[in-house]
Amino acid sequence: MTARFEFELKATDGKARTGVISTPRGEIRTPAFMPVGTAATVKAMMPESVRATGADILLGNTYHLMLRPTAERIDRLGGLHKFMNWERPILTDSGGFQVMSLAGLRKLTEEGVTFKSHIDGSKHELTPERSMEIQRLLGSDIVMCFDECPALPADRDRIAESMRLSMRWAERSKAAFGDRPGHALFGIMQGGLEQDFREESAKALREIGFDGYAIGGLAVGEGQEAMFDCLDYAPDMLPVDKPRYLMGVGKPDDIVGAVKRGVDMMDCVLPSRSGRTGQAFTRRGVVNIKNARHADDPRPLDENCSCPACSNYSRAYLRHVFRSNEMISGMLLTWHNLQYFQDIMGEMRVAIAAGRFDAWEEEFHAMRAMGDIDPL
Ligand SMILES: [Zn+2]
User: Fold this and answer.
1) Is 93 among the residues known to form the active site?
2) What range(s) does the tRNA-guanine(15) transglycosylase-like domain occupy (predicted)?
């Protein structure tokens, strides 16, 4: 255990990388997938169950927590780790993205954003300084710079203006974050799908200097091909010796494609959200547990998965509890999905270390292309 935040790159295979981030709260093996604990909980999961899937770090949402129960209340109660009973590392986003996607009546100025809460309409302000304060009150281990992200498609002028504002905010975020040993501040690269703006943004961030670098402004509706095109060059613009985090990604094949292109960390609500709507991610692709074909099927969802849903229950049971709106349905499918996401991260770490990522990737796609096991 270290008292500092450090990243050690252990091996590379092509552009894919594997390493370890050390923090006072434990190690994060990369490439890492971070389950999302929006409201101080990964929905339908106990924290020890999230850990049992292999997760080293969770993501918390500043926007949600500042509105309810508030960062000040969480601080009084001992910080977010204690509040939600997760002692390992937590990364918090800056609130910027969710203000844009969830809040009503936003007003954007050089200073920051004022907005109305989507919960009760109350008025709030987020600035780089306030975002740093909230993330400090939460006790976040990895703090994200406050940024602005325009919805795509947007014209080049709008993307440039927004990116440059985010770079000024990155500088203010760094100043407000101060010197906090053991805690990390990540800068966020913006610039949409414009390579020259991505380069300008990366340069600005490198000059300020951060503990890690995120690639923002992707996975916002541009599609996988456009995202991969950007990831073909964007990670290369960031320092080799710092972790690279692709925000809000993604589906299993998005994740694999991002790792292949040099990304170290990712987060997404997909495994937990899909788990609550009867959708399971497996080695053989997506399985909709509500389908009638599972009604009499005594086989597990995925015979190669070690999670409780696959070890102890049949497809028939999983379909039954989903159709009956039983809580265990969301619990089991969320566990399975989080397990699957962590399993592919673990397999990729091993494959990269062994220098056989390409072979692993080929197998990954071949299994998915086969589709679900044949009905009985
Ligand atoms: Zn499973």
Assistant:
1) yes
2) 15-367
Predicted pLDDT at 3: 83
Residue 151: pLDDT band (50, 70, 90) is confident
* Residue 94 marked ligand-binding: yes
Per-residue pLDDT of 115-137, as tens digits, reads 999 999 999 999 999 999 999 99
Known active-site residue 196 = no
Catalytic residue among 56, 141, 211, 267: 267
Q: Is 320 annotated as a binding residue?
A: no
Annotated binding residue 149: no
Mean pLDDT of 266-290: 97
- How far apart CA 283 and CA 297 sit, in angstroms, is 18
Res. 317: pLDDT tops 80: yes
Q: How far does the centroid of ligand 1 lie from the alpha carbon of residue 355, in Å?
A: 27
pLDDT at 1: 55
Mean pLDDT throughout 260-282? 97
Domains and CATH numbers, the chain: 6-95+126-268 (3.20.20.105), 276-370 (no CATH)
272, 35 Cβ separation under 8 angstroms:
yes
Q: Is 147 annotated as a binding residue?
A: yes
Q: How far is the CA of 213 from the centre of ligand 1 (A)?
A: 32
